[in-house]
Amino acid sequence: MEINEIKAKDMLHQEYEKINEDETISKALSLLEGKKVLLVFEKDYENYKGVLTEKKINRSFLDPETKIKKLVMHAPKLNPEDNIIKISRLMFENDILQLPVFENNNILGIVDDTEILKKLQYQNYSEKTVNEFMSKNIITITPEEKVGRALALMRKKGITRLPVLEAGKLTGLITLHDIIEHVYRPKERFEAGNYFDEKVSVLDAPVKDIMVKNLITIKENSKLKEVMSLMLEYNLNSIIVVDENDSLKLKGLITRKDLLEPLTKLYEETKPIHIHLILRNELKEEAPKEEIIEEIERFIEKWNDILGEGTITADIQKHKEKFRKLPLIFTRLRITTDKIKVIVNANGWGFEQSIKNALKTAEEEFFKYKEIRTLIPRKKYVEFLDLAPLDLEE
Description:
Distance between the termini: 55 Å
CATH topology of the largest domain: CBS-domain
CATH architecture of the largest domain: Roll
Number of domains: 3
């Protein structure tokens, strides 16, 4: 089977639970036992809101009685027919490795990075070498430094793991998960006792006390399929890469996300129009990125005969004003192709209305300029005139 023929429906599993957005973190953690992801809904369990993972909870360091609505990550809905290339792009762009599959608003299951790796092992691109995709500028720590220092580094750099080097030699690995287990232990932290005293003492302990010492590593010239096999066999999210001739010499780190990146490039290569989203004011998790992209894709399909090849960039900002709980959203849309160039601005209450207004304004621009009108088929030209008559005189 060719890589673009692998669909969401071929990779479904049922390792998920549903939860109400008003439930607490402690309730979420109890449901996550043995599960990879929670699907979050409103009270009626009909309106899907997003996903929640243990990793997201652990990185928040919030009180266990906090409502999970503060942590919900927007995750786009997959269609059963979406192929593995599109799915990998969505995972990479949204920084979520578990996506739900819906059909007619009914949840069918989950597709995650594990299922994708299982399929990718047997594809041609898995013959590429590790050093093409690994991260090379790795932040490290020494075994004698304090656990608190490791945690501070992870927070500052936005990472979840640190190789441990002693005299330049690889000696271990400390991860955010290790620290959570030893310091915060979210599954036990609701119990009273000596929690705070214990937390302080562990943060002051040396890294060597809690780091993983028996490491699984891979050499830099190994094939990607070998990485995938190790990740699947040992349920690893990352693998340390070492020198071909020295197993204690750190060369880099490769993660599951690194393995998805080549597929995102394959997706881009199949599209004549590349879509870029710029989300301002910390909108990365709030904005419904997939819905915005789908709206733009429908626009591209409608006008594909005049757009040519190029990019559409949507620069989106949120204002403080609200109407019926919907924020005022500003969208600056830039269409730059080998045939046309149009830049428009639009506001709207909510993301959906804002992007629709911007796209509608772009359509109006198409009919204002003679050089663009000559590209528009007569049928669309007449339809547009009937809907929105414009002064088309030069």
